Structures are given as structure tokens and as C-alpha cells.
């Protein structure tokens, strides 16, 4: 061996350093990546495979000594033909659609206003962002206080602004308001997320494009629709992707606000899944349920990412 | 006179925009201010109607948060020696005596241990992996990176079922170690993606120069790359910490006694006839304040953190 580096390595007194220098870059790469991959395999992938396996059985975690039977696709068939579960899916879709709608609308408007670069916009942006970083469970729990029937702050403000008597409605009780109440809290929390991403999009548009449009005498309205919107769209779609995945999985905030009630009015799929898995202990059945949810979100996200890439290429 | 610019908004449009955004900020901060102020209200003040904006501040909520109290018989109450401390005195006013400390302190400490433990581990493993992904040719690199990201798409409850069973077998249920490992597994995807972005931005030339100077790869990593990536590592760490701090679903399903963190505990603080709102608000304030401060410190890297490094401003 006449490799000068190896020769230098042999001359190094520290035996550890010598051994390490002996490692190829490829070996170092694997050494560095392996612990992460191992951890993810142990705590993410292995459990996922286990869930798939359980989903074909009638196993119940609260009766570990009972004999486990293979039931084939029965759990899947039961879930897909269950009207209750389709109702939960509709509840989830309602929540998903309206939270995204309001967050995009308000978030984009705010970003567009903040982009006027008025004095103090940095400070206001930081303040507006605060709710999004807080614990959804703790905040969700506190909103039940703001939503108290008759005496809650929300009822008071509604009476003050619209004149509707505060005692005539209940934000989380029966009467159909609960599914809008959870949308309100989610919008309050996550609008800043959409806003921040839109702001990044708006700031990425170079000034010279507007200057060129101005020379061509394009109206402000036309500039907005032909420059601003298309340039921000990839950012906006990314924000929708993140919020969509998160809200499909939504559990903590809503479970503390309503627990799925009144009745089943706000029973999102993941809250229902928690009941099946950890209250009724139908482990096999809920594993199938979990797989169906995972495949749904994964499938929808993949289709969406394809669309997003098309928009980006344009 | 400044030069006329077509892209600079007019003074009036700035004013209108500023007012509208300020209005939104006031509305959106109102619930947070309400949490903080409710913590300093007395029990009756907290549920009075119309809601009280001006009230006599009281530390009752904070005292209730940290203590458990019992009611004693009337004549016994009369014969008690005078209260020794200010918090004794506050509890006496409501006709009760302090029975002992509450569990809030323990739960908060659990949040700190699990939060910092999992953050340290995620950053340690994440930095190594991110460096490898950034600098070396790792086979199937893109697939591995996507695999790391996709683990975030699973609903927590879906993963919780087998983890519950696995932890039961391994004796990790309701232990600090179990929660630290779990949160590390969830956070590591964020850590790898963010840190890879930060390390990508450090010019390779620095390390190459160090290697030529006779540094080993490890030395170059430790003495050249790590100091350069310090800001990125710090902000990634804060993101990991905030996630572990806020997490509820796994905590409520996998812990009950010894390792329970604060988020599942705070909603269970009850007083006479329902939740003790001043105490809940006091707990929420203590729990939320660190995150608010971190958010303000992080504001430059916020966007990057919440989008897994996809948007960098």
C-alpha cells in the first residue's frame, strides 16, 4: 500500500483516530444513518406491520389470554359497510373542508395585508403566530371555558355584537353549532400557519414582474390575478397539504373540546378510532380501521403532491 | 422626495392594512389574554356574567393548582392555629385547609424530562443522519428521506395500538424512557429534514480544507460543521422540544401515573362542581408561557420549522 493518507494514518499516534480514518466515507455514512433508520423501523414500521397483522384477527388487547382467531377480511368488510363509520368520514370531511376554506381565505388575506410592509408588521406577525405553537390539548380544554353555555365569553361577545341573547344558544351543546365551534377553534389556531407560508410566497415574487406589468398598463386587478395568485399558488397548495394531513389526523384539540359530542355530531374518524381501540378494546377491528385511515390519507396526499408538482413546473 | 416606485404601496393602503391586521391580532390574542387573566381571578369572578374584565387579582388559582385541599368541620376550623403562610391564608378564606401538594409539580417535571430527553436524542441522531444525507452518497437517498417523512402521516392513534402492546411486553408502558423513545421517533423526521437543510447551506469547501489540513472526517464534522450549524441545531431543537411539550394523544394513551406529562393532566384539574377554571388557567399559563417565549425567539426560523424545511423565506 502506497496510499499517502493511509500512511499518514498509520503514523497517527491516537489508535481511535487511526481506526476512524480507516473507515471509508461510505462506512461513515451508514454509521451515521443507521441509528435513525433503526429507531424508525422499531417504533414506526414494525408497529405498522403489526397493525396490519392484527387487522386480520379478532384480538382484544384487554383479554390477552383469549385465543386469537384469523378472520380474514371480515374487519375490513364490516368497517366499509358500516353506516356509522361513513357518517364519521363525512364529519371528518366537513371539518377538513371548512377549516381549510377559512384558513386559506383569512390566511392569504392577512399575508396580503402584511405584505404592504407597514410599520410594525414584524411584531404583529410574531404575535399573530402565537396560537399555532401552543398545546392543542391545553388550549382546546380552555376553549370549553370560553364556550360555556349562557355565561361563556363567546356567548357574551355574540350578544354584544349581534344582539342575540347569550342564553339562547350553546356553542358545544345540542343545536348543531358544535361542528362549527371546533372549526372556529382550529381556524383560530392554524390560520397563522397558512399566513406565514403565503407571506413567504408573496415575498418571493420579484418586484420587476410588477414593474413590467405596470409598463404594459395592466390594471392592479389584472396584476393580482395574473401575477400574484399564480406565483403564490404553489406555496398555498403546500400549506393546504400540511394542514390537510394534520386535520385528517385531528384528535387532541377536538377530543378535549367536545369528546365527539353532542351525540356523534363532532365524532371525527380518529376520535372514533380511539373509542374502538382503547375504550371498547376491539383491537383487531380498530387495527383495520387504522389501516383504512392511513391508506386514505397516504393516497390522497400522493395524488395531491402530483398535482402540486404540476403547478410548480408551470 | 423619494423616487416613485410602482411596487411600493401607498401610504393610505399601508394604514388600512396596518389597522386591519392589528384588529385581527387583538381578536386572536384575546383568548390567550383571557387564559392569563383567568389565572388571577377568584372562583366566583371567573364564572360571573357578564365576564369580568376588571377584577381584584387573587392567587387562589395558583395556590389551588399546586395543592390539594380538604374541608374540615366548623368547630375544628375555629380552633385551628392562625395560618402560617400566605398560601395557607388564601385557602382558609374559602373555608378549607391544605391537605398536601398536588401532582402538578410532578407532571410538569415529567414534561421537562421527557421533552428535553427526546429533544437531545432526536438532535443527536438527527444531526448524524442529516450530515450523512447532506455530504455522502447514500444509496436510495431520496427513498429513505421520503420514508422518514412519511412516518409523520400516520394518525397517532393508529401507531398507538401496536406501541401500546409492544410497550406492555417490554415493560416500557408509563415510563420516561418509553415516552422519550416514542417522541424521538416522531421528532426525528423533522430533525433530519431541517438539519439537512441547514447543513446543505454550509459550504463543503470548509471541510475539504480541514481534511487537507490533516483532520479526520470525524474531526472535520465536530470542529468545522457542528459550530457552523449551531444556529440551525438550536432552532431545530426548539421545534422538537415544542412538539414533545405539546403532545397529547400518545401521552394520554400510554401514560397514567409515573410518566404522565402536563397536557393530559391539566384538563383533569377539578374543583367543586366541575373544572376549577382559575387553577386550570394558572396551569395553562405556566405551561404555555415557555412556548410563547420560544416562538418569539424562533421567529426567523419559524417558517422553516413548520414546513419541514420546504419553505425557507
From TrEMBL, chain A:
Q: How does it sit in the membrane?
A: Multi-pass membrane protein
Do you know which InterPro entries this protein is assigned to? MalF_N, MetI-like, MetI-like_sf, Sugar_ABC_transporter
Q: Which GO terms describe its biological process?
A: transmembrane transport
What stretches pass through the bilayer? 28-50, 95-114, 126-146, 180-202, 223-245, 287-305
**Keywords annotated in UniProt:** Membrane, Transmembrane, Transmembrane helix, Transport
The record ties this protein, via CDD domains, to: TM_PBP2
Q: Which domain of life is it from?
A: Bacteria
Q: Which PROSITE patterns match?
A: ABC_TM1
Q: Which Pfam families match?
A: BPD_transp_1
This chain's protein is named Sugar ABC transporter permease
- What is the source species? Paragemmobacter kunshanensis
Automatic annotation (TrEMBL), chain B:
InterPro entries assigned to the protein according to its UniProt record, in alphabetical order: BP-dep_ABC_trans_perm, MetI-like, MetI-like_sf
Domain of life from the UniProt record: Bacteria
Q: What is the residue range of the signal peptide feature? A: none
Q: How does it sit in the membrane?
A: Multi-pass membrane protein
> Transmembrane stretches, by residue range?
15-36, 112-132, 144-165, 177-195, 224-245, 277-298
Xref: CDD domains: TM_PBP2
Compartments reported by the entry = Cell membrane
From the Swiss-Prot or TrEMBL record, give the protein name. Answer: Carbohydrate ABC transporter permease
